[in-house]
Amino acid sequence: MDGTRVPRYNSYGAYLKRVFGEKVYKLPVNVGATCPNRDGTLACGGCLYCGEDGGAFEGLPATMSVSEQLARNKEYIGRRYGARKFIAYFQTFSNTYLPLPRFVACMEEACLDPDLAGLAIATRPDCVRDDYLRFLAELSARRGVGVELELGLQTVNYRTLAAVRRGHGLAEFIDAVLRAREHGLTVCAHLILNLPGDERLDVVETARVVSALRVAAVKLHALYVLKDTPLGADYLAGRFIPVSAEEYIERVILFLEHLHPDIAVQRLLGRAPAARTLFCNWGLSWRRIHERIVAEMEARDTCQGRRCDYLNGKALTHLSLPA
Ligand code: SF4
User: Fold this and answer.
1) According to the 3-state scheme, what is the secondary structure of 149-201?
2) Which of 30, 31, 34, 37, when mutated, tests ligand 1's pocket best, judged by the most ligand atoms within 8 Å of its CB?
3) Residue 296 included in any domain
4) Does 37 sit in the ligand 1 pocket, CB within 6 Å?
5) For residue 167, how far is its CA from the centre of ligand 1 (angstroms)?
6) How far, in Å, is the centroid of ligand 1 from the Cα of 189?
7) How many CA atoms lie within 13 A of 206 on its CB side?
8) 313 in the Ramachandran plot: left (φ > 0), alpha (ψ -120 to 50) or beta?
9) What is the CATH number of the domain that holds 164?
10) Measured in angstroms, how far is the CA atom of residue 123 from the centroid of ligand 1?
11) In the chain, pLDDT over 70 holds for what percent of residues?
12) pLDDT digit string, tens, across residues 154-174
């Protein structure tokens, strides 16, 4: 043993370095998008856990232009991490739910930045229209930038999706992935491994489905609980009890073991806005939990893809938990 640590999973940072040949950082951009699951089109309340800002707590206000936000974040991140190339990350709510002319204007404005390597666009799988995809494919070719759709799936268990009021099922996700691929775009799947009602077998099947679909990347979030949400009310009334940190760590390891090794992993858990949070990451820093996951994988000498059913055209597979 020479003391060198073996990577236990295919990290996004390493993936970006392979693709672009240098460090690339994502810069959040907020363009004031909304969501059909909140504005009355599909429903009014949103998902049980959705907060008012839709992820905007990490970003700048939507009143700033796309170029101003990119310039401000680039100055900070570039100085802090020594990065020269960036991905504009349209992070908040469902960005392909913007009217097409506004969506086109935002993407075109981002592409004026000379240091831009790509666009990452967060949205719902049922908000991916072909006219938006055609525009993105044309923009990608014209500007020479990669385009990734960040699709919120959360779990493949359609009963859980219904129970947390996602307003879409698994089929919409599969359809969006296939159509994005037809247009030459890549997909990152956002997943929550500890939604109420989900068990370890759901985690395994979620890893199997995104592996079978060969998404480019996944981003994991541990479910957090915000004030003034239906989940927050359930939490305060004792109707919702989050799984333990130990159980979450087990689920992440199980997920990674069943995940195809080519799929990049952007995060193992996320962060929440401190001021409005009732429960987040068991009161620990995300870095501490991340370290515990990696340490446990090292202790078990396991890694991403170790139990993946979709390697080398393996034919006979079935859904089960490891003995
Ligand atoms: S899809 Fe996202 S933005 Fe829309 S209600 Fe659910 S969590 Fe909120």
Assistant:
1) EEEEEECCCHHHHHHCCCCCCHHHHHHHHHHHHHCCCEEEEEEECCCCCCCHH
2) 37
3) no
4) yes
5) 9
6) 14
7) 31
8) left
9) 3.20.20.70
10) 9
11) 94
12) 999 999 999 999 999 999 999
Select the more confidently predicted residue: 213 or 45: 213
Quickly state the pLDDT bin for 230 (edges 50, 70, 90). Answer: very high
Q: What is the pLDDT of residue 6?
A: 82
Over residues 263-279, mean pLDDT: 90
89-140 pLDDT, tens digit per residue, is 999 999 999 999 999 999 999 999 999 999 999 999 999 999 999 999 999 9
Cα dihedral: 76, 80, 81, 82 (round 10): 80
Query: Comparing C-alpha atoms, which of 53, 52, 57, 63 is closest to residue 28?
Result: 57
How many angstroms separate the alpha carbon of residue 224 from the centre of ligand 1?
14
Residue 104 Cα to ligand 1 midpoint, Å, equals 22
118 lines ligand 1 (CB under 6 A): no
Structural domain of residue 130, as residue ranges?
12-221+261-270
In a domain? residue 126: yes
pTM over 0.90: yes
Nearest CA to ligand 1 atom 7: 50
* Cβ of 35 less than 6 Å from ligand 1: yes
How far apart (Å, rounded) are the C-alpha atoms in residues 138 and 148?
14
* Residue 1: predicted pLDDT: 41
- Closest to 282 in 3D by CA, of 248, 233, 232, 317: 248
Is 81 inside any structural domain?
yes
E strand segments, 40-169: 85-90, 116-123, 146-154
What total of structural domains would you count in the chain?
Answer: 1
Residue 283 lies in a domain: no
Predicted local confidence at residue 67, as pLDDT: 96
Q: Which residue CA neighbors atom 6 of ligand 1 most closely? A: 47
Does residue 50 have its Cβ closer than 6 Å to ligand 1? Answer: yes
User: Which residue has better confidence, 274 or 226?
Assistant: 226
Q: What is the pLDDT of residue 317?
A: 62
**Average pLDDT of the chain to the nearest whole number:** 92
